Amino acid sequence: MLQLCLVVIGVTSIHAVKLLQTSSFHVKLFPAKGADKVWAIQGTDSIEMMNVNGEYYLRAINPGHWQVSVEPKEPYRRARFEVTDMKPGTDRDLGEIRLMK
């Protein structure tokens, strides 16, 4: 029983350390309903960001260099921008993106 408890504590500790090393960011779109999807891209990987009332979130990401790509609804234009130097354990507010027609 003691060995099982030690294993559970060890596994939990490993996951806690990994969680502390991940980052997150969020961005607000204006108009709030102007996009179909917003993607976060790192290298060849892409993740669709979660929309909550026009604010897009991405949690538990790897630190490093990211791009955010907005797939707009008509009549708005596509937008893409860089998110540089995401440090481990940070949550960054990227501000607001105003979609252009």
CATH top level? Mainly Beta
Structural class: alpha+beta
What helical percentage do the residues reach?
Answer: 10-25%
**How are the strands of the largest sheet arranged?**
4-5-1-8
* Tally of domains: 1
The CATH superfamily turns out to be Immunoglobulins
Distance between the termini: 64 Å
CATH topology: Immunoglobulin-like
Report on the structure:
By secondary structure, the chain is an alpha+beta fold. It has one domain: Sandwich (Immunoglobulin-like). The protein is built from one helix and eight strands. 16% of the residues are buried.
Q: SSE layout and pairings?
A:
Layout: H1 2-20, E1 23-30, E2 35-42, E3 45-48, E4 50-52, E5 55-61, E6 64-72, E7 79-86, E8 91-98
Parallel strand pairs: 1-8
Antiparallel strand pairs: 1-5, 2-3, 2-6, 4-5, 6-7
Give descriptors for this structure.
elongated; 101 residues; single chain; four-stranded mixed beta sheet; Immunoglobulin-like; 8 strands; 54% strand; alpha+beta; 1 helix
Structure described in brief:
By secondary structure, the protein is of the alpha+beta class. Helices cover 19% and strands 54% of the residues. The strands form two sheets. The chain has a four-stranded mixed sheet with strand order 4-5-1-8, with no helix packed on it.
